């Protein structure tokens, strides 16, 4: 596994590292680079002689040409005495000019108090000055878009979709996930999912104009889905 320094030397990126720990528990963000795809792992490390029941929150913010995208993962876990445990893994496609911020919080399950935190920044200058930390009171994020594409065509679709999505006034409250799976030849299947429901799927081809049209179609399907969800909520209230 490549260390953080190895990752940054390959990408020629600048990094700022910050960690805080308390109660003999620490949080650690581990990164690994694979040809521009950053694998991010969140780890909890105990130097205590007692068991710990904790919650974790892992947040990634990516800033690229098409805008800013966010991802949040969270969950409960138990930590044994002197145990090191991997809590979560996620992948981010990162170009050399992209900025990335990662935040990890470990919280006591009973009191909800933060007992450890860690953060990492790559090309932090891509972000505006106000995006320097995540206030703990604002950890419940909504309206996220998650990029799980794997090829250049998939990335172009995601960037086109995200750019168009950022321009609409009303965002979807849930999480939009764009995934990509290999198919025949040079093609791949790109899928747009919301609320664990596939709302749009297509076979990609090496045609940027076609990808723009697919992004527009996916956005229209998302708008229809969002409108139907809002209508159901209003009907339920009455």
From TrEMBL:
Keywords recorded for this protein, A-Z: Signal
InterPro entries: CsgH_dom, Curli_assembly_CsgC/AgfC, Curli_CsgE
Signal peptide segment: 1-19
Domain of life, per lineage: Bacteria
Gene3D superfamilies referenced in this protein's UniProt entry, alphabetically: 2.60.40.2420
Matching NCBIfam families: chap_CsgH_alph
Record function comment: May be involved in the biogenesis of curli organelles.
The protein's name: Curli production assembly/transport component CsgE
């Amino acid at each position: 596994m490549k260390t953080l320094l190895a990752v940054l030397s390959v990408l020629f990126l600048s990094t700022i590292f910050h960690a805080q720990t308390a109660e003999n528990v620490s949080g650690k963000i581990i990164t690994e680079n694979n040809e521009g795809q950053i694998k991010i792992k969140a780890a909890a490390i105990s130097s205590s002689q007692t068991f710990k029941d904790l919650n974790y929150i892992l947040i990634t913010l990516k800033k690229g040409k098409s805008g800013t995208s966010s991802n949040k993962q969270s969950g409960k876990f138990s930590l044994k005495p002197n145990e090191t445990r991997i809590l979560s893994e996620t992948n981010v496609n990162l170009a050399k000019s992209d900025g990335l911020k990662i935040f990890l919080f470990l919280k006591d399950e009973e009191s909800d108090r933060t007992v450890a935190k860690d953060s990492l920044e790559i090309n932090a200058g891509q972000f505006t000055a106000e995006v320097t930390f995540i206030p703990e009171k604002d950890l419940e994020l909504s309206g996220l878009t998650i990029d799980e594409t794997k090829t250049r065509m998939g990335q172009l679709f995601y960037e086109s979709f995200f750019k168009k999505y950022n321009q609409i006034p009303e965002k979807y409250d849930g999480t939009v996930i764009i995934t990509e799976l290999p198919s025949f030849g040079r093609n791949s299947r790109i899928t747009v999912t919301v609320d664990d429901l596939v709302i749009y799927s297509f076979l990609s081809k090496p045609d940027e104009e076609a990808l723009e049209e697919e992004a527009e179609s996916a956005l229209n399907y998302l708008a229809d889905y969002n409108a139907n969800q809002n209508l159901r909520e209003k009907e339920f209230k009455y």
